[in-house]
Design a protein that fits this description.
Blueprint (H helix, E strand, L loop, with lengths): L12 H17 L30 H16 L10 H13 L5 E6 L2 E8 L11 E6 L19 E2 L2 E3 L7 H16 L8 E6 L10 H12 L3 E4 L4 E4 L2 E11 L1 E10 L3 E2 L8 H13 L9 H10 L5 H9 L6 H11 L1 H7 L2 E9 L5 E2 L2 E10 L5 H12 L4 E5 L15 H13 L5 E6 L5 H5 L4 E4 L4 E3 H5 L7 E3 H19 L3
Parallel strand pairs: 3-6, 3-7, 7-17, 8-18, 9-16
Antiparallel strand pairs: 1-2, 2-6, 4-5, 5-19, 8-9, 10-14, 10-15, 11-13, 12-14
The protein binds zinc ion.
The site of zinc ion has 5 residues, from loops.
């Protein structure tokens, strides 16, 4: 239990016991029926919550409250492994209980849980219409020595809230919670159920992840639409350039490169030394660039982005798909941004090297790991085939690892949810558009898309490249002003999508 919190974290053991006791007390306090959440056994089709709709108000007060929730969530260390998301799940249950929302803890493994809560629109649920607000409770670990502040201290400095998970994904978690509670407080008349879901084990996609949750408890959060992480609102030169709405994601694989040779005494080097063969293979692979091709989402992304970029870059973006200048244009765009490079092609990154047993022994084997990110629809067998031709060394073999990524259909750009986001974003960000986005990273949305959910990725905070780079890195932080704006934008999207006006 002691490792739920960093020893020198802001919340100590005693405080944690208080939080847990408070959460338990609050859960008991809401055992009575609550109008909006506890649907009476009424007539099908008649809303269970027939209150007079109120005009949608200002979300700035709840954003301030949500800053506090975010700070508390950062102080609850959910570095994965081991995750230990249960305490964060209980904390959220307590927050929801204060507003009379009964949440359910869904246990996945010892100490690891998810949380689900629902605002009902009618006595009979219509899962295909429901909107799921999803975020994950766990974070990646930290290298504390590289942080300038305590990563679990939720330190506020120069308008930023620092901490592991400040953006990924506790920021979104707190914003989801705020939008959800705000909807409840506004007594809005919903035209579809809105479901809050906090998942566990996202960062390692392990046994306590959404995969298990779907297998075990799908009925509790089945929805036709979802807003998740995966896309971002990109700030450039001090203003929002565009919102990248993730509608698809690349698929991750690992390939092991194995070079074999004859072991022997290092005083008499041989040509079949596997270290040499592995190094040569890795060098060739590292310098290789797979051919570019466009998925429909990436094509639309660059079409939308070209007019927003400076003239030179815009010109190359428009030329990428032309017969005469296409190849050169693809190279210019790929060299300009690693993100753009990875959106255009399958990528292969050597990440781990393993060889040698002693300084004076030529080993029998040397290995490397390649982390591969495929464009949706591409085949790993084809990549292996290309790499085998490239390496062209009988001493070197490639093995695809079984822990493969998940190929899912992309979300539609014609869905009601995509249309609502496309409408709200320019209204909120001075005309900046929403563009369809294919993330190079993976998210829980692939699992949802495989269950016919129109899942879209949009972390609602306007963020600079510098802030975005800190996700999974050191000194992760969120500008408090961006957090407040994100709560507002998300609340407006949810209102537009799920509230009867
Ligand atoms: Zn995340």
């Amino acid at each position: 239990m002691a490792n739920f919190y960093e020893e020198d974290g802001f919340v100590n053991w005693k405080q944690m016991v208080q939080i847990m006791a408070g959460a338990a007390a609050l859960m008991m306090a809401v055992s009575f029926p609550i109008t909006a959440q506890t649907a009476p056994a009424g007539t099908p089709g008649i809303p269970a919550n027939p209150v007079i709709p109120r005009p949608v108000g200002d979300s700035s007060a709840i954003a301030k409250e949500a800053q506090g929730w975010l700070a508390d969530l950062i102080k609850i260390n959910t570095s994965n492994p081991p995750g230990n998301e249960q305490i964060a799940a209980m904390y959220i249950t307590g927050i929801l209980a204060k507003d009379g929302i009964k949440a359910e803890i869904l246990d996945l493994a010892p100490g690891r849980s998810a949380v689900v809560a629902r605002l009902r629109s009618a006595a009979v649920a219509q899962p295909s219409r429901a909107l799921l607000l999803v975020a994950h409770l766990d974070t990646v670990p930290v290298d504390k020595s590289k942080w300038s502040v305590n990563p679990f201290g939720a330190v506020i400095k120069d308008g930023y809230l620092y901490g592991r998970g400040a953006i990924d994904d506790k920021g979104m978690l707190a914003a989801n919670l705020a939008a959800f509670i705000w909807l409840k407080r506004s007594m809005a008349r919903l035209n579809r159920d809105v479901i809050f879901l906090a998942t566990a084990d996202e960062e390692t996609s392990g046994d306590a992840s959404i995969r298990t949750l779907i297998a075990k408890d799908w009925d509790k959060f089945a929805a036709g639409f979802a807003i998740n992480e995966g896309g971002n609102i990109f700030v450039k030169n001090g203003k929002v350039q565009y919102a990248g709405v993730q509608a698809d994601e690349k698929v991750a694989f690992n390939i092991t490169v194995i070079a074999r040779g004859t072991s022997g005494h290092a005083s008499q080097p041989t040509k079949d030394n596997p270290v040499i063969h592995l190094a040569a293979a890795v060098a060739k692979i590292g310098n290789y660039s797979a051919p570019a091709h466009f998925t429909s989402i990436v094509r639309r992304y660059f079409e939308g982005l070209a007019p927003l970029e400076d003239d030179e870059i815009g010109k190359w973006m428009r030329s990428m798909d032309t017969a005469d200048r296409g190849e050169h244009a693809q190279r210019v765009i790929s060299d300009t941004s690693p993100l753009w490079n990875s959106m255009l092609r399958d990528t292969i990154a050597p990440t781990v090297l393993t060889a040698g047993v002693a300084n004076n022994v030529i080993p029998a084997e040397a290995r490397a790991n390649l982390n591969v990110r495929l464009l949706p629809g591409d085949s790993i067998a084809a990549v292996v085939n290309d790499l085998n031709k490239l390496v062209n060394d009988p001493q070197v073999k490639l093995e695809v690892q079984p822990s493969a990524g998940l190929a899912a259909p992309s979300s539609s750009l014609e869905s009601e949810l995509y249309k609502v986001i496309s409408k709200v974003v320019p209204q909120e960000f001075g005309g900046a558009p929403a563009l369809p986005f294919q993330s190079t990273w993976l998210t829980d949305s692939a699992q949802l898309r495989l269950h016919q959910v129109q899942a879209l990725g949009l972390v609602p905070f306007p963020l600079t490249q510098d802030d975005l780079k800190r996700m999974h890195g050191d000194d992760e932080r969120i500008p408090l002003a961006a957090f407040d704006k994100g709560v507002d934008v998300l609340s407006k999207i949810v209102t537009e999508f799920a509230v009867t006006h």
